[in-house]
Design a protein that fits this description.
The longest helix is centred in the last third of the chain and has 14 residues, at about 95-110. The protein has two domains: about 5-80, 434 Repressor (Amino-terminal Domain) (Orthogonal Bundle), CATH 1.10.260; about 85-123, no CATH class. It has a two-stranded antiparallel sheet. With about 120 residues, the protein is an alpha+beta fold. The protein has helices at about 5-10, 20, 30-40, 40-50, 55-65, 70-75, 95-110, and strands at about 10-15, 75-80. The termini are far apart.
C-alpha cells in the first residue's frame, strides 16, 4: 500500500477558507472583527487565514449565518509532499533571516523552489 511513498510522496488535502475570506463583507476586517461578526474565536479566524485545522463547528456557524453550504465557503486542494532524499540540499535553519528571505524571494521570482539555485551569499 505504501510502496510508492518514496517515489510519489505523501498525498494531502488542504482545506482553504479562501472563498469565505475573500467575500466583500469579510475582506479588510481584522480577525477579531470577523470573529465577532460570525461568533468565532479570534484564534480560529487566524487559523482559517493560515490554512490550519479549525473546529468543525466553525463551518456550521458560518454556514448558518450566511445561509449557505460548506462548498460555498471552502476549497479543497490535493497536494503531494515529496520526501527529501539523501541527495537533497537543505537550507541551514541556523542561517540568518536575510539569507532565508533572499532564498525565498529568489525562488519565488525565478519560479523555482530549488535551494540549489538560491542566489544568497554563503555565510
Amino acid at each position: 500500500m505504501y510502496d510508492d511513498i518514496l517515489d510519489r510522496g505523501i498525498k494531502r488535502t488542504i482545506i482553504s477558507f479562501d472563498p469565505f475570506l475573500k467575500r466583500d463583507d469579510v475582506m479588510g476586517l481584522t480577525d477579531a472583527q470577523v470573529g465577532r461578526r460570525f461568533g468565532l474565536e479570534t484564534s480560529t479566524v487566524k487559523a482559517m487565514r493560515l490554512h490550519q485545522d479549525v473546529p468543525f463547528d466553525t463551518i456550521q456557524k458560518i454556514c448558518h449565518a450566511l445561509g449557505c453550504q460548506p462548498g460555498d465557503i471552502l476549497n479543497a486542494t490535493e497536494v503531494w509532499t515529496i520526501l527529501p532524499t539523501k541527495k537533497a540540499r537543505t537550507i541551514d535553519v541556523r542561517a540568518p533571516v536575510e539569507r532565508l528571505t533572499s532564498c525565498y524571494v529568489s525562488a519565488h521570482l525565478c519560479g523555482s523552489l530549488s535551494a540549489a539555485r538560491c542566489s544568497a551569499p554563503a555565510r
